[in-house]
């Protein structure tokens, strides 16, 4: 023990010296040696720094260095993150991944190779040509499928997701867009027109009959009454002169 051991230390040290820093730590803290130039200073930390792993002992908790290729580790033989240029696999840092695995440059780990997966083909579409289903004899029909699993870097690439083949249909004329509706509108207008024509004719007939009736009534009012014609036989009857 250094002769300048002190009991009133700062920074989590249980015992310390002016030359070596912490010599022991308070409970639950980890003791680690930090190099400052050619000198090593003891410090007490709540957790071990990057590149170290903690080991607890009855008398002291210590931080020990990870292997040279580990950036962080759980124990000396089990890395949790590798330094640049190495890939993590089963707690080890490797320069090249084993067969059947591929290097993931994003996570810097060796991962399983993932191949592309697709869904089943959809049914064939109606036979079409230039977006229409009529007005032609030969056209094309298509079917599609979806990608359900994209491949990894070394995985099998995805196949085509659509197929097309020629088809033949019974040729038929295309009905003009809105023709059926137009025909219905024309029929309705024509029906309304016929009804209007009949109504006008009926109204015209009523008006004519009413006018004739009023004319007859007016004539009857203005025409003088005819005098009753004398009875000629009565006038020619013999006059009785006998008394």
TrEMBL record:
Residues 175-219 have a biased composition (Basic and acidic residues). Residues 116-170 form the Spondin-like TSP1 domain. Residues 169-243 are annotated as: Disordered. It is found in: Secreted. It comes from the Eukaryota. GO terms for molecular function: heparin binding; signaling receptor binding. Signal peptide: none annotated. Its main location: secreted. Keywords: Disulfide bond, Glycoprotein, Heparin-binding, Repeat, Secreted, Sensory transduction, Signal, Wnt signaling pathway. Residues 11-110 form the R-spondin Fu-CRD domain. InterPro entries: Furin_repeat, Growth_fac_rcpt_cys_sf, R-spondin, Rspo_Fu-CRD_dom, TSP1_rpt, TSP1_rpt_sf, TSP1_spondin_dom. GO terms for cellular component: extracellular region. One of its GO terms (biological process) is positive regulation of non-canonical Wnt signaling pathway. PROSITE patterns: TSP1. Belongs to the R-spondin family. Activator of the canonical Wnt signaling pathway by acting as a ligand for LGR4-6 receptors, which acts as a key regulator of angiogenesis. Upon binding to LGR4-6 (LGR4, LGR5 or LGR6), LGR4-6 associate with phosphorylated LRP6 and frizzled receptors that are activated by extracellular Wnt receptors, triggering the canonical Wnt signaling pathway to increase expression of target genes. Also regulates the canonical Wnt/beta-catenin-dependent pathway and non-canonical Wnt signaling by acting as an inhibitor of ZNRF3, an important regulator of the Wnt signaling pathway. This is R-spondin-3. It comes from Melanocharis versteri (Fan-tailed berrypecker). The lineage of its organism: Eukaryota, Metazoa, Chordata, Craniata, Vertebrata.
């Amino acid at each position: 023990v250094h002769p300048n051991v002190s009991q009133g230390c700062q920074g989590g040290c249980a015992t310390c010296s002016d030359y070596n820093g912490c010599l022991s730590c308070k409970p639950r803290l980890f003791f680690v040696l930090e190099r400052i130039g050619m000198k090593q200073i003891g410090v007490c930390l709540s957790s071990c720094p990057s590149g170290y792993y903690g080991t607890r002992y009855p008398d002291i908790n210590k931080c020990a260095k990870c292997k040279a290729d580990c950036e962080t580790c759980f124990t000396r033989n089990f890395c949790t993150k590798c330094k640049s240029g190495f890939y993590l696999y089963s707690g080890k840092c490797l320069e090249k991944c084993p067969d059947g695995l591929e290097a993931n440059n994003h996570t810097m780990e060796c991962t399983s190779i993932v191949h592309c997966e697709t869904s089943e083909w959809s049914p064939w579409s109606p036979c079409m040509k230039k977006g229409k289903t009529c007005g032609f004899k030969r056209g094309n029909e298509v079917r599609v499928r979806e990608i359900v699993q994209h491949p990894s870097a070394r995985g099998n690439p995805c196949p085509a997701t659509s197929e097309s083949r020629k088809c033949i249909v019974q040729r038929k004329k295309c009905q003009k867009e809105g023709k059926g509706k137009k025909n219905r509108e024309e029929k309705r207008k024509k029906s309304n027109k016929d009804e209007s024509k009949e109504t006008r004719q009926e109204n015209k007939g009523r008006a004519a009959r009413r006018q004739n009736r009023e004319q007859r009534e007016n004539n009857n009012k203005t025409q003088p009454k005819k005098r009753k014609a004398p009875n000629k036989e009565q006038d020619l009857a013999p006059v009785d002169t006998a008394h």
